[in-house]
Design brief:
Layout (H helix, E strand, L loop, with lengths): L1 H32 L9 H12 L2 H19 L1 H22 L7 H24 L8 H28 L7 H6 L1
Helix pairs in contact: 1-2, 1-3, 2-3, 2-4, 2-6, 3-4, 4-5, 5-6
Keywords: Membrane, Transmembrane, Transmembrane helix
Protein name: Gx transporter family protein
Pfam families: Hpre_diP_synt_I (PF07456)
Length: 179
């Protein structure tokens, strides 16, 4: 039992490191892609989705909080708060949908998570600005969230076979309990 807990802690550390590396890489390539301000691919969110689906909510929540803390340290407090608010709404949306009796596809979960992330950030920005003006950006962020959700779900789906071959779980945590 202790070996399993140790393995889970080590995997969580590796996932956090991977999320930070992906976040750094994304910040380097985003300007090259010509995306409009505020739009990011969400590469680090692939790691959070993996944690949610294959490790459980506590690990995904921990990664989300650590990821926001890292953003706060490297890009400033405002960016950290926006990351935290978007990440928490995204995680809540994906977790609620994931718990439905008929589970949506990873594509639907990812797109809804991306939309939740954008909405959470826009609401937080409205509070930080003390104005609802930030919400006027919602239509653009919703359209971009659809595209970026597709990218992250496709990336996760492409990575799962390789992760399985490397010995990582690719069977949802709740399904492992039943088998």
């Amino acid at each position: 039992m202790r070996n399993n807990k140790t393995r889970q802690v080590a995997l969580s550390g590796l996932l956090f490191a991977l999320a930070m590396a992906l976040s750094f890489m994304e910040s380097a390539i985003t300007p090259l892609l010509g995306l409009i301000p505020g739009v990011k691919i969400g590469l680090a969110n692939i790691v959070v989705m993996y944690a949610l689906f294959f490790m459980g909510l506590p690990q995904a929540l921990t990664l989300n909080i650590l990821k926001a803390f890292f953003v706060g340290l490297t890009r400033g407090v405002t960016a950290g708060l926006l990351s935290l608010s978007g990440g928490l709404v995204s995680l809540l949306v994906m977790w609620l949908l994931y718990k439905l009796p008929r589970r949506p596809t990873y594509f639907i979960l990812s797109v809804c998570g991306a939309l939740g992330h954008n909405i959470g950030q826009l609401i937080a920005a409205s509070f930080l600005l003390s104005s609802a003006l930030a919400l006027t950006y919602a239509p653009i962020m919703i359209i971009c969230g659809l595209g970026m959700g597709f990218v992250t779900s496709s990336s996760l789906a492409a990575l799962l076979p390789a992760l399985g071959k490397m010995g990582f779980s690719t069977q949802p945590k709740d399904e492992r309990k039943n088998s």
